[in-house]
Amino acid sequence: MVDGEAAASLTEVVENRWRAAGCTVETSEGVADDRWPASVPVQCRGMTVGIARTEIATASDAGVNEVARLFEASINVADRFIYIENQFTSAADIARLLAQRMLDVPQLRVLIVTPKMHSSWFESQAMQSGRGGFIAPFVAAGVMDRIRFLYPSTQDGGEAAAVMVHSKVMIVDDRILRVGSANLNNRSMGADTECDLAFEATSEAHRKCIERIRRQLIGHFCGVDEEEIASNEADLLGYLDRLGEGGGAKSLQPIDPAATAGSMATMVQPVADPREPLHLDRAATRMWTPRTILAVTGLAAALAGLALIWQYTPLRDFTDVGFVSSVISQPARSQFAPLFAIAAFVVGGLVVFPVLVLIAATSAALGPWLGFFSAGVGVLLSALTLFSIGRVLGQARLQRLLGRRAARVQGRIIGKGVVAVAMIRMVPIAPFSIVNVVAGASKLSLRDFLLGTALGMAPGIAVMAALGAQIADLARNASWANALLLALAILAWIALCLGVQFLVTWMAGRRT
Fold first, then answer.
1. Which residue range forms the structural domain that includes residue 489?
2. Residues 216 and 325 in one domain
3. Element (H, E) at 270
4. What is d(CA 386, CA 144) in angstroms, rounded to the nearest whole number?
5. pLDDT tens digits, one per residue of 442-475
6. Distances from the Cα of 47 to the Cαs of 75, 160, 207, in angstroms?
């Protein structure tokens, strides 16, 4: 709570936003008497207060980015200790600036209190992955020994529960206290409307006030008083580490930097956590340039030409499913049909042939059980072959061959293990063959790679194997009914994959 000029300035902010919402504002009048509630103790008097806002740029207004500028200015003057409580940590620019400041000022320590996990699947996809990107600059700078990412935990009867953090607080060197609505995410820097209050200590009494607030906040999470925090200031981070290991009723526990969201985050996060509002009309204008229109037209023409070739040239004999089925079902050769299918996966992987087509064809030709087994073995053997090629090529040589695409795929895989590989297989971010080669060139273990591939590909192979007869029938007798069945099969595959991703994220949240 504030009064005086600070309260009057906040009144202006509120009235301006009320008008922007299309509402009428009555004329406000000042009052002469003291309006401070008797039930609220006064912690400090005469402290300088500033207001930092984020307001969205419009056609008529340039927008306001005071929130981002205050974060930058506060970090750039930090010399001893930064304390942060925040619901979200995904603003990579702020993280890089803070990591650089820690390199420039070797004695600077940082404590960040944030939730262990986020409450909903959407928040996890949007922010959990962003937190991994927020932590990365500190790892790269080699300053993780001087910074802690902790979440509050409470125990009762031997059972621990993570405490949700919704606050947005920052204290710098006990000289600047910031309280408001802005998160440490991209949205708060330009896409949302925010308002923070910044208190600056201009006397020793003011500094002592901010110091007490910081100690009370930390002590609150740890179940100790501010005097206990004060007596351990010389090694506060070490004290919190020991307190967390002691198994007390309340403590601050370390956040696992590897606990990130699934591959769906690559699609959700840019929409849920943008640095500026999503101007879809402008995005469409940028997307449909003459170059992209020409590229799309050329691709459509190429696909149409390929379809005509397979339909009206002698090659059409090789696409007849009845012909292929008769060859596979011949008594003399039917026992080798699974081996032919497995070999097709290996060869197809080497020429970057779409793996989904091979799965569908195998299921249609061999039936549900044998088709599932053959496709599963073929997928794993093809993946192993290409993984081995990637390992021989090495990371540097592969990135020279594939460029940025390899780097993007590696960023989704490295250090994230079985679950990351499985989710990439469920909703692919790159062709099957490219993922295999890039995984081989990375530091990913062969065990994690094969297990993730098996878990991620199994749902799709199972759906295609179960509907193999419908796929074969569509190939022999094209009709709207058969096409609808095939479309339903694809939708079932997508729903199953997304459902498994949702279940994995939900179970991770339950474990917290």
1. 320-511
2. no
3. helix 265-272
4. 36
5. 667 777 777 777 877 777 777 767 666 556 555 5
6. 21, 40, 10
